[in-house]
Amino acid sequence: MSKERKIQVTDVILRDAHQSLIATRMRTEDMLPICEKLDRIGFWSLEVWGGATFDACIRFLKEDPWLRLQQLREALPNTRLQMLLRGQNLLGYRHYADDVVKAFVQKSAENGIDVFRVFDALNDLRNIEVAMKAVKAAGKHAQGTICYTTSPVHTLDLFVKQAQEIEAMGADSIAIKDMAGLLTPFGTYDLVKAIKSSVQLPIAIHSHSTSGLAPLCQLKAIEAGADRIDTAISSFAGGTSHPATESQVAALRQTNYDTGLDLDALTEIADYFREVRKKYQQFESEFTREDISVQINQVPGGMMSNLANQLKEQNALDRIRDVFEEIPRVREDLGYPPLVTPTSQIVGTQAVYNVLAGERYKTITNEVKRYLQGGYGQPPAPVNVDVRKKAIGNEHPNEDRPADSLQPEIEKLRKDIGALAGNAEDVLTFAMFPDLGREFLQQRAEGTLKPEALMQRELTVPAKAMGKVATEFKLVVHGETYEVDITGVGDSGGGRRKIYLSLDGMPEEVSFEPLNEYVADKPGARKRATDKGHVSAVMPGNIVEVLVKLDDVVEAGQAVLIAEAMKMETEVHTSVGGKVIAIHVQKGDRVTPGELLVEIA
């Protein structure tokens, strides 16, 4: 056995673990009570921020992500705090100007981040240089990242070359990020051995357990010279999450690689999170379990749970296997990008459109168009020329670093958001998600922020509850348990059933709706699109922009609206030419397929 080499552990319970298993929904209030115990464990770092947490905080939880970071920093004074940063994409879904990247890194460091894991979805390392330099300028740990994937062009030699380029940037360490659980044990050994023989930096292994192989991969990585592993407390481990912290600690005990972490203390933390997880059962999915088919469809853990939840919201969960089969085809068309945010979202959403529309690339998202224009960087392999032509015509893709064409943004963003931004952090929130960020800041100023409800139990009212037959049950809302008597059930209408309750402290009339199901329109809602001149959306979503006005003359195939679905924007086109005689939507409206949105005559 090799000489003694203590293995360091980064635990991802406060970020990637819940992103992978419950769609990033864990609230800060469920993190803070256990922080004192987490802080005493002796982890090399705790991953607490970045990835999808910023988006989820303002989109669903209505929490200020900067406040979360500040509270975690205060609650974890003895532990390095780590974040996942998407290079030039930061935490959004587009490339930002260099001044925004520098400002974001600086503010993240000031608010408590010690370790920045910086990656680019395409492994186009031009897109991480500015962020890496900003991390070093802030005096923090810069961890350059290689996104692992498999394809005809992703070879061992390519990964070694990328590791050498990351070292040359001045990185403090290198992470091998296996977001989809594609690594195999002996492949991991070969990869780590090759990289360790070519660079002098510590190596961290981040691998999801989707295929069930990640714990074995980590052990082989350690044998090959890896210095650090990413794990998750067992109550949020396994499946599309990560190897269990306790299991890996136990596996290395009394060996030359002993982590030195206390299993008893870890078990107490696991017990706490086991109870926390019960609160979020509505976000659990059968598609986050261990499944070796990931070696075929290559869908990463965080993408798996979010994709399942998004399809569920669109009443299309039964098509998820079709989507999984379509994802590798779209990925090949786009030049084999690794599937990690934002490319996972770009590929996944386009696959959903291809499946639900019944025709491949009938609708092409704006993000796919931007990707094919070179807006995200250089694809790893040549793209499908027919798909590119359908998306961007004969336009020649940009081959320069995408951010080179961007003008400084900070001052413009500051002016655009105005008095709603109380500090520089608010301006950066607005920068990440302009419409969503503005809405969040506006609601915060008005005191109207309202997080999505956590309904811990589904309620089924039996037929005999109609009339005067009382039914007793317990209802859990936001962690509070209420004993309820049903004293009568009213008429159903608009897809809802009104239940009259005998309950102190709650309204007498409560409307229960099936979770994540479309509620039927009430009388007076939009008409159905029935004529050729009627424009409708392909998928449920929100209107981002109305591109036409009344009496405008449009051509067949012209975009008249921009809609957002699954965090990706798409143009909504008219199939006929003529004059716009009616517009039934405005920016911010929620729409569903089949509704009449614009009329052309």
Write the layout of secondary structure elements.
Elements: E1 8-11, H1 16-21, H2 35-41, E2 45-50, H3 53-61, H4 65-75, E3 81-85, H5 98-110, E4 115-118, H6 129-137, E5 141-147, H7 156-168, E6 173-178, H8 185-196, E7 203-207, H9 214-224, E8 228-231, H10 245-252, H11 263-278, H12 294-297, H13 301-313, H14 320-333, H15 343-357, H16 366-372, H17 385-392, H18 410-417, H19 424-432, H20 434-446, E9 471-477, E10 480-493, E11 496-502, E12 509-512, E13 534-535, E14 541-546, E15 553-554, E16 559-565, E17 568-573, E18 578-583, E19 590-591, E20 598-600
Helix pairs in contact: 5-6, 5-19, 7-8, 8-9, 14-15, 18-19, 19-20
Q: What amount of the residues lies in strands?
A: 15-25%
The class by helix and strand makeup works out as alpha/beta
Biggest sheet layout: 8 strands, parallel, barrel
Q: Radius of gyration in whole Å, from Cα? A: 25 Å
Average of the residue pLDDT scores: 87
**Major sheet: arrangement of strands:** 1-2-3-4-5-6-7-8
Total strand count, please?
A: 20
Number of helices: 20
Shape: globular
Query: Helix fraction?
Result: 25-40%
Termini distance? 79 Å
Low-pLDDT segments, ≥5 res: 457-471, 485-524
